[in-house]
User: What shape does this take?
Amino acid sequence: MCIAIPGRVVEIDHPFAIVDFKGTRRKVRIDLLDDLNVGDWVLVHVGFAIQRVDEEEARKTVELLEQIFGGI
Amino acid sequence: MLKVRDRRRAVKGLASELGRLMEGERDITIMHLCGTHEDTVTRYNLRSLLPKNLNVVPGPGCPVCITPDTDLQMAFHILEKENVILTTFGDMARVPFEGKSFFYYKSKGYDVRIVYSVFDALEIAKESNKPVVFFAIGFETTMPSTALAVLDGVENFYVLSAHRFFIPAMEHLLSFDDVRIDGFINPGHVSTIVGVKAYEHIDVPQVIAGFEPEDVLLALCMIVKAIKRGENCLLNEYTRAVRYEGNVKAQEVMDEVFNRVDWEWRGLGIVKNSGGSLKRKYEDFDALKFFEDAFKDFEPREDKRKRACRCGEVLRGVATPLDCPLFMKACTPKNPIGACMVSFEGTCNIWAKYHARKDNR
Ligand code: SF4
Assistant: This one.
């Protein structure tokens, strides 16, 4: 119920976007986010994009993991 | 986030790091606040990898589970009294009250429809002349979507709000004498909306975490280090999705539509400022207002079938499903008695699904 799933924006038609979830495409409301672009990763919850997923930050977390348990 | 092989190495590496960190330490209990975290912890059997003096207990992080019976009884009351189409999320539809659920009513010919999004409910309203009631549950993650639907202003669309603001429940949890909390793993998806800033006033070490096994273990490493140093930290492991400010637009629509009132939670009692009731100016869309007359004879009842159910204690983190005499006997995912066995984010359901045993402390 409180789950949000990451997907990539493939098409924008305000206030909707088509988001690709590992090959499955769904129409999603995007009016809770500003300045969304095709190619962005978003978290989708009950049909709404609720937040952007920042690839740069995702990379940093992986780096932090590497520091702790040694290089992958 | 990581490939399977790398994940195994990460999980192993982080588990031994935690072992090192906890060596010779006093017992530490960390409560997480999200059903999806419990799913990660139990699915990957993370508890069996943790040092014995580090406990990770699930808290009230499942919106379906914490919705008290009174709210459900109110929804059923509207169904019985009024000629409506009732819409709700699938997870809610199987929760029983006195042996009846939304699916039960549907099987008896009542017009109950399961929706994936509140906008499905709006579409149903646009195509019908009947009043369409949306039984709305969920924390800050879900509330903005209901708020947007209200702002759309479809005439025959009504919200029966069972929404709860989560942050007040965290403060409330700290007030119980029987609940031991040395730190919180904060709910990741709620945090994408409310931001890091929403937790600053809560006086206990906290870490916001993502949902992969390596996220949870990394978050545990971060918070244990801080606890050892005696710091009252507020850390963020889930930086890829949670910003300091959160989703300001979502916060604005939520605050535009909802008041914060004192409402009950299953297991927690009344939690101050946690109830999301519709503001006066949106009362045209408030099911409680529109069906006011139907509630004149409404009396909340206790569900006698749930007397032995320990959902409340499970939600407070003071009992595990294995402490419940009904777990996997009278109460199973197929025939649930309590809400914690119904929802995919309920601790009892998760423990049943992954066959959790005693070592899943
Ligand atoms: S196993 Fe069933 S009856 Fe027992 S606490 Fe969980 S939901 Fe309630």
Chain B touches chain A through 56 residues (CB under 8 Å). Residues B 309-311, 314, 321, 324, 326-327, 331, 337-338, 340-341, 348 surround iron/sulfur cluster (CB under 6 Å). The longest helix of chain B spans residues 4-22. The mean pLDDT of chain B is 95.
